[in-house]
Write a structure and sequence with these properties.
By secondary structure, the protein is an alpha/beta fold. The chain has 4 helices and 11 strands. β1, α2 and β2 form a beta-alpha-beta unit. α3 crosses α4.
């Protein structure tokens, strides 16, 4: 029997109805102003249906970013450049060894529910961590993803998003192997009394490439189940 060269009709239907999300991984360290400028342009293109949605994975040089709710008192030591940004949230550190995922997606295609989108971002991080047998958890009243460590809880991932014309940008950051002492210059996300951790700090000595593979699989599982 001759094998068909055409995909089944259900696969064709899925290909036609499932939005194409571009996936990029940047080489080296991406300057933060360049990343913001790129996102601003791409968001406008997505809103005008000129370019597809995009997930962009980057690393930044060591910086602090201040979200729209940032308090001056939470900047303890401006040892690195500080950038004000339009994303939600407070102060966050970005630097080498941390995977930042910028997510530019059209919420019109997803019911226009920002809270549901943020919940999906959290689930994306939780499933990525689960791929390495790390239990990441949400906490009421605390932004980000947390890891229980005996009597204490440490933050391993942060979330901060902005929406323009119903297209999202900014996104998530996951600590793979950053210098955790760099977080000491801020009160991360305005939350004191808790620490920060990373996969390497937890003894999970994976590479950034390993994390990228896990993030891609988890993203598809969450956003395109």
């Amino acid at each position: 029997m001759k094998e068909s060269l055409h995909p089944p009709s259900n696969m064709l239907s899925e290909a036609l109805t499932r939005p194409a999300v571009e996936w990029r991984v940047a080489d080296g360290l991406t300057p933060y102003p360049e990343a913001v400028a790129f996102m601003e342009e791409r968001v406008a293109q997505i809103a005008d249906a000129r370019r597809p949605e995009l997930v962009w994975l980057v690393e930044h040089p060591a910086i602090y970013t201040a979200g729209t709710s940032a308090k001056d008192a939470d900047l303890l030591d401006a040892r690195f450049p500080v950038f004000k940004t339009g994303r939600g949230g407070q102060y966050t550190y970005h630097g080498p060894g941390q995977r930042v995922g910028y997510v530019m997606m059209d919420l019109h295609r997803r019911g226009g529910d920002v809270r549901a989108f943020v919940h999906d971002l959290e689930e994306w991080l939780i499933r990525t961590l689960a791929a390495f047998n790390v239990k990441g958890e949400r906490r009421d009243g605390r932004v980000g993803i947390w890891v229980a460590r005996g009597k204490r809880e440490d933050k391993i991932a942060a979330i901060g998003v902005r929406v323009r014309r119903w297209v999202t940008f900014h996104g998530v950051s996951l600590n793979v192997d950053p210098d955790l002492t760099h977080f000491g210059g801020i009160v991360p996300c305005g939350i004191s009394g808790h620490g920060v951790t990373s996969l390497h700090d937890l003894g999970v000595l994976v590479s950034m490439a390993d994390v990228d593979v896990a993030m891609r699989q988890a993203f598809d599982d969450v956003f395109f189940p």
